[in-house]
Design a protein that fits this description.
This protein is an alpha/beta fold. The chain has one domain: Alpha-Beta Barrel (TIM Barrel). About 45% of the residues lie in helices and about 15% in strands. The protein contains 15 helices and 11 strands. It has helices at about 1-5, 10-20, 25-35, 35-50, 95-100, 125-135, 145-155, 160-170, 185-190, 200-210, 230-245, 270-285, 295-305, 325, 335-345, and strands at about 55-60, 60-65, 110-115, 140-145, 175, 215-220, 250-255, 290, 315, 350-355, 360-364. β6, α11 (about 230-245) and β7 (about 250-255) form a beta-alpha-beta unit. It binds ligand V47. Ligand V47 binds near residues 180, 254 and 257.
């Protein structure tokens, strides 16, 4: 394999990766530009196995999207709707609690809860969601509200971001998911999501959370109109933020799904693109403990392959995924624990059921 990597013109990067040396943006560019996916994957696998051995993680989780009503209406999003739309919905706090109660008998360890930027739900609603869920399932870790939602909650509650996070934490918030990062580039944000919190704003919320001891994830929405340079700049901003705070748990590359969006003329990403984004991220983000291949977006089959191309996590059982399925995802909406264990074992890895903070629950 080493000879193959040298023949692909990536010998100097192999030396760096082997020696644990940090890659430059130029190195990342060469990896993205290389047509030799096996060499790039081999490099990523070195980092993956150094950090996570032969383990591959999954979680028993539940997704809840409390409302799709959104004032941002990003061009890449098929989920967000205007309040007047016939497709708009909004769940009451009691309805959300009911959703949690419905699955009372299941060993769910995490609730992943996000929604749109709602024009008029009061701050007490969001606090109520957290408190309500904790009342019925005090044992469950709540990973909720993207950095974009947190900034909005600070605005409507007349508190600083720090005060808001402290207050939400007191109500039951345990960690923050990685959504809303998109691509930090102001050019991309201007074209695709002009009303959304800026990239700097997103990073500031994440770093503030980390300083309060709240862990978070990070994402990048790739495969639309972004350039390779813009992807690398995004990764570099995340790597620098992580150097400062060490609060990010996982990086999740999100494959753009065009159906029902204002960018529906674009094609879906290819398998090669999906693997490349995972592999380059694994090589470049040397300070991120985990890279997730989100099976909902790239499918269980490619997620298996991704476990040898840098990923060490496939996300979880999920159930009722709306954001990607509104945009044309053809994956199922849920996988059982047995199915997750099976796809991981067949990929030659050791399935580890984890909690949100990557504490091991069971090894299969
Ligand atoms: O914030 C929106 C993205 C995100 C589309 O933190 C789209 O562990 C593809 O962030 N095609 C939500 N992506 C999903 C997300 C996530 C998922 C799983 C785990 C975690 C985690 C985070 O999906 C949004 C946005 O960035 N998105 N529209 C689309 N058409």
């Amino acid at each position: 394999m080493d000879t193959m990597v040298v023949q692909a013109g990536l010998g100097d990067i192999l030396e760096k990766v082997g020696g644990g040396e940090r890659l430059t943006k130029e190195d990342a560019f060469r990896l993205f530009a290389s047509p030799d996916i096996l060499s790039v994957g081999y490099l990523a696998n070195i980092v993956r196995e150094r950090l996570n051995g032969n383990r591959a993680y999954f979680i028993y989780n539940q997704h809840i999207n409390y409302s799709n009503i959104c004032t941002n209406l990003c061009k890449f999003c098929a989920f967000g709707k205007e309040k007047s739309s016939v497709l708009a919905y909004e769940m009451s706090v009691d309805e959300v609690i009911e959703k949690v109660k419905e699955r009372d008998s299941e060993p769910i360890s995490e609730i992943h809860m996000v929604g749109g930027i709602h024009p008029d739900l009061p701050y007490s609603y969001y606090r109520g969601l957290l408190e309500g869920i904790k009342t019925v399932r005090p044992d469950i870790h709540i990973q909720a509200f993207t950095c974009v939602e947190i900034a909005h909650l600070a605005e409507i509650s007349d508190q600083s971001v720090e005060e808001t996070l402290g207050d939400l934490q007191a109500a039951g918030l345990d960690s923050i998911p990685g959504g809303g990062a998109e691509v930090f580039s102001p050019r991309i944000r201007k074209i695709t999501c002009e009303k959304k919190l800026s990239g700097e704003g997103w990073l500031e919320v994440a770093k503030t959370a980390h300083r309060l001891g709240i862990k978070s994830n990070a994402t990048m929405l790739y495969g639309h109109i972004e350039t390779i340079e813009e992807r690398i700049e995004h990764l570099d901003m995340l790597r620098s933020a992580q150097d400062e705070t060490k609060g990010f748990l996982t990086f999740i590359p999100l494959a753009f799904h065009p159906k029902n969006t204002e960018m529906s003329e674009l094609s879906r990403t290819s398998g090669m693109e999906d693997l490349k984004n995972i592999a380059v991220a694994r090589c470049f983000l040397d300070n991120f403990p985990h890279i997730k291949a989100y099976w909902i977006m790239i499918g269980p089959k490619l997620s298996q392959v991704a476990l040898s191309f840098g990923a060490d996590d496939v996300d979880g059982t999920v159930k009722e995924e709306i954001i990607t399925h509104m945009a044309g995802a053809d994956t199922d909406q849920a996988m059982s624990r047995d199915q997750l264990v099976r796809i991981i074992k067949e990929a030659g890895r050791i399935p580890v059921e984890r909690d949100t903070l990557y504490n091991e629950i069971s090894v299969y």
